[in-house]
Design a protein that fits this description.
With 195 residues, this protein is an alpha/beta fold. It has seven helices and seven strands; from the N terminus they run E-H-E-H-E-H-E-H-E-H-E-H-E-H.
Length: 195
């Protein structure tokens, strides 16, 4: 089992969500810090992004924000995160999210979170990215996405093996277990990317 040193967390930036999502984010962040794992995230100060950063900082962990310059200019960035990578655009930001990480963690979020997750799933299907992708399905938040992904397999757009690309989990305190129980993946996945 490989030591987990650094993870990227995809999550939403809305403040208007149920408090349960903030609590789950806090629990997950504490678990990561307890295990001495560096957290990479989108750099925001609001919503689950803000909760993630606040908790990691409070727990004396290490967090790195990655954000395009234009978002800093409108003051989206978290002022207490002292490690930042500012990118030229959103595409470069997504590339940086994956540099040197041992896993990707997806919390509930909106279209930006979905887009980041789906790109990661695509890159893993092609064998370009091979690390675990774990998805916190808190109270069934991602059930419909999993239904849609199942449908792609049923309809022949993806293969049964591709369902091993992601690992759902429901308890934010068990994030390390979710990462460690993910199905191993290799660059050879390109050989069965085509259905």
């Amino acid at each position: 089992m490989q030591k987990i040193k650094k993870v990227c967390v995809y999550c939403g930036s809305s403040d208007k969500v149920d408090p349960k999502y903030f609590e789950a984010t806090k629990t997950l962040a504490k678990s990561l810090v307890k295990n001495n794992i560096t957290v990479v995230y989108g750099g925001g100060a609001r919503g689950l992004m803000g909760q993630l950063a606040d908790t990691v900082i409070e727990e004396k962990g290490r967090i790195i924000g990655i954000m395009p310059h234009f978002m800093k200019e409108v003051e989206f960035h978290h002022k207490d995160v002292n490690e930042f990578i500012f990118t030229a655009d959103m595409h470069e930001r997504k590339k940086q999210f994956m540099v040197g990480v041992d896993a990707l963690i997806t919390l509930p979020g909106g279209c930006g979170t979905f887009e980041e997750l789906m790109e990661a799933i695509t890159l893993k299907r092609l064998g370009i990215f091979t690390k675990p992708i774990v998805i916190l399905n808190l109270d069934g938040y991602y059930d419909k996405l999993f239904d849609m992904l199942d449908l792609t397999v049923e309809e022949g757009f993806m293969g049964e093996k591709h369902k091993d690309i992601w690992t759902p989990f429901e308890n934010p305190a068990k994030v390390i277990e979710a990462i460690n129980t993910s199905v191993p993946w290799s660059h050879d996945a390109i050989k069965f990317a085509q259905v």
